[in-house]
Predict the 3D structure of the following.
Amino acid sequence: MPDTVVITRPLAQARPLAERVRALGRPVELLPLLEIAALEDSGALRTALAGLADYAMVAFVSPNAIDAAFAHITQWPAGVKLAVLGEGSRTALAAHGVTPAEVDIVSPADASKSDSEHLLQTLDLAALRGRRVLIVRGDSGRELMADGLRAAGAVVDVVPAYRRSVPPLTAPLRATLRRLLAQANDWVITSSEALRGLLALLQEMDETDDGAEKTDALQQKYVVMMQQQHLIVPHARIAETANNLGFTRLTLTGSGDERLLAALQSHP
């Protein structure tokens, strides 16, 4: 029996990938580690999107940012450049009818380094000096992209498009984590925030579990058990986070589901 592939993406992105993984003959478990929700007040987002034509470039930090924004966009304005971090975001744009055939879409040249640092290296920053740039993201996130663009002289607006949070440690989630950690799996981790959230959940389990587990010290070490699992990650920054958190069994695929699926095929 091949190892189960645990997909930790938010459900909207997890389900299509799960279908493709099952087509490879691999068992799949969906374990969303970040919950995505609409903003309580989307006024700032709608105001920013109403003025898209005033921006020289709009940067989306994730497929979730794209999906949330395009709920309010009917047509992409001509001449406004797009910037994204990886293939998942390009796929999300295409699903909304935005492709490189019609719009200039910029992303990091190295698919294994789909992050803000490498996007900034790819952009023509000099051409953005004195011009307006919009960054669409979740309600929290790194400031590196905005800071880098401002340092280059761009006039930057940042607007949240959705809320994200780690799920609470419910009894069903606790049972699922125990079951998954009792065997070897391939864990698809596409967010450093999600990985840190997972370890926080496991630390909570270590601190609060009672019953039979208390008689066996090994059964209390959920964090250690997780660190022994195999992680499949698309970005070098997530790999660095995993290494810093004590993970040693890592496969870095580069951005995009095709690379991820290829990695799964080579790691049966």
